[in-house]
Amino acid sequence: MKVEVFDDLCISCGECISLCPNIFEWGDDDKAIAKVNDVPQGVEQLAHEAVEGCPTAAIKEE
Ligand code: SF4
Question: Model pTM?
Answer without folding.
Answer: 0.94
